[in-house]
What we know:
Elements: H1 3-9, H2 24-35, E1 46-51, H3 54-73, H4 76-81, E2 85-86, H5 89-95, E3 99-103, H6 118-126, H7 129-142, E4 146-153, H8 162-185, E5 187-191, H9 199-208, E6 215-225, E7 236-238, H10 245-248, E8 250-251, E9 253-257
Parallel strand pairs: 2-3
Antiparallel strand pairs: 1-4, 3-7, 4-6, 5-6, 8-9
Helix pairs in contact: 2-8, 3-7, 3-9
Amino acid sequence: xxxxxxxxxxxxxxxxxxxxxxxxxxxxxxxxxxxxxxxxxxxxxxxxxxxxxxxxxxxxxxxxxxxxxxxxxxxxxxxxxxxxxxxxxxxxxxxxxxxxxxxxxxxxxxxxxxxxxxxxxxxxxxxxxxxxxxxxxxxxxxxxxxxxxxxxxxxxxxxxxxxxxxxxxxxxxxxxxxxxxxxxxxxxxxxxxxxxxxxxxxxxxxxxxxxxxxxxxxxxxxxxxxxxxxxxxxxxxxxxxxxxxxxxxxxxxxxxxxxxxxxxxxxxxxxxxxxxxxxxxxxxxx
Length: 286
């Protein structure tokens, strides 16, 4: 695949993976791609744990599902991430950021815009939405053939120092290399993020992977091969839009916005289609 095609096809996979184990050579390719990332003085502060043991994956899945349910039931999730939700295609087209909830049970659709109110929270709890989302989340993680834990060397991670910033920047670059590699390998990847919202649950995952004290657990991902016929979760969203150049790029000074013109987002240079869009049936486009 051409490099720019890889960039264009990079996605977050919200749906299930195939049950097939991730090939050892592909696991190796992912972490070798990560190792090619730039880092401060070539410090390479990242560490990775590749988890394919079903029992450990099941434990992480339970924690993830429990975390999702708790965050949804008490309203923490909706309150914390309210700025990122869009409720119409028109709003999504205007803002070109955030996520649009476009799939949910028909009984809940009339209440979609009320999810941030106390009434909306009460309705969702009554219909068991938090438990539905939590169970969906547990199944997605439990049926993932590979979990990737991303860790940072605490000796390099020194908040407040420039080297601390660069260590996090380098880790991000390493993860982006992994993400791009999944597009090349026919794989998908998604954050397992909800346990991070609950400190004691994040510590439970650290214990599952026997993480030493000199490392900091920064992120957890689930990976696997993406089926051609992608089944979407019960409640799902899409995020295919990207900001126009004029919304995030300046020319010479921040007083002058860049012309939109042709480019990755809305143009069609060689190797790109006109828009960055998921394939048929895909909502996994973060």
